[in-house]
Amino acid sequence: MKAADASLEAGTRPAHETGTTDGAAHHGMPSALRILTRALPIGLVGVLAGPAAALSATTGVSDGLPDVSLKVGQSSNSPGTTLTILGLLTLLTVAPSILVMMTGFTRILIVLSFVRNALGTQNMPPNQVLVGFALFLSLFVMAPTLREVNHEALQPYLAHKLDAKPALLKAEVPIKLFMLKQTRASDLALFIKLSHQPTPTSREKVPLSTLVPAFMISELKTAFEIGFLVYVPFLIIDLVISSTLMSMGMMMLPPVLISLPFKILLFVLVDGWALLTQSLVAGFHT
Questions:
Q1: Which sign does the torsion angle of CA 91, 145, 227, 279 carry?
Q2: Alpha carbon distance 257, 264 (integer Å)
Q3: Contact by Cβ (8 Å): 63, 52
Q4: Is 68 helix (H, G, I), strand (E, B) or coil?
Q5: What number of CA atoms fall less than 13 Å from residue 279's CA on the CB side?
Q6: CA-CA distance, 236 to 263, in Å (whole number)?
Q7: How far, in Å, CA of 48 to CA of 51, rounded?
Q8: What is the CA radius of gyration of the chain?
Q9: Could you give the CA distance from residue 198 to residue 207 in angstroms, rounded to a whole number?
Q10: What is the dihedral of CA 92, 96, 97, 98, to 10 degrees?
Q11: Cα–Cα dist 99/141, whole Å
């Protein structure tokens, strides 16, 4: 009887008083979960705060927030910096085409190439020398036109006296006048006819889209005419040397080998480069 009471009393005691492992396991699981749930938010805050602090230290922005600023009072008519840079890059891209098609560069370079071929000096002067000489001679020829463009359009635009569109219209006028002086009436009439547009009331009102190709074919024709005149004296020297060699029975000797020194001598004696340059520049100013 006493043994049964003792066993019943031991069974009704709390588990922590009995020291059994089952009671310890029962109370240990909730404690581990409570510790984990408390530590998880703290860890997430640390993980998120780390990159934010690094961003704040590297960019100089407090609390990881971007710095937003608003400028008030700028003129809405002036183009933005991005548009200005885009316009400059576009101008630099098309600058070689403008140089070739709207100045005297084409005529000068073709004539210089004809002179080199007529002399028979192969690659002397080199291409770099001819292109450089043609470039600076074109700038010399275009100097009055460029000064007028600078005075009438560029400086007023930089001084904010003109907007972009009126400045472009003013810059177009002296360039068109230069091209019209060099363009033949027949070439201009050809492209006006091909454009299927109404005939302009005056030459100054011809659009650039029609004037530029007419100017180009006029320049090509003029350059080939000058090249023919340059070829004639050197061709005569070649004929004389060739006839002399054939009469002497030296048919195996190339005539060019003998005529080349005589052609160079003739070109130097008449001061060919100065005479050629004078003729080219005078042709543009007539």
A1: negative
A2: 12
A3: yes
A4: coil
A5: 17
A6: 10
A7: 6
A8: 44
A9: 11
A10: 70
A11: 12
Q: Minimal CA–CA distance to 112: which of 139, 97, 131, 94?
A: 131
Per-residue pLDDT of the chain (286 residues; tens, 9 = 90+): 444 444 444 444 444 444 444 444 444 445 555 554 554 455 444 444 454 444 444 444 445 555 555 454 455 455 556 766 776 677 677 777 777 788 888 899 999 999 988 888 878 888 898 989 998 998 898 888 888 888 888 888 788 887 778 888 888 888 888 888 888 888 888 888 888 888 887 777 888 888 888 999 999 999 999 989 988 888 888 888 888 888 887 777 777 788 888 888 888 888 888 888 888 888 886 5
Report the length, in residues, of the chain: 286
Q: Which residues have C-beta within 8 Å of that of residue 3, sequence separation ≥ 6? A: none
Tell me which residue has tokens 């004809």.
114
By CB atoms closer than 10 A (0-12, 13-18, 19+), residue 138 is buried
- State whether the Cα torsion 167-168-173-177 is positive or negative: positive
Interatomic CA distance for residues 246 and 255, integer angstroms:
9
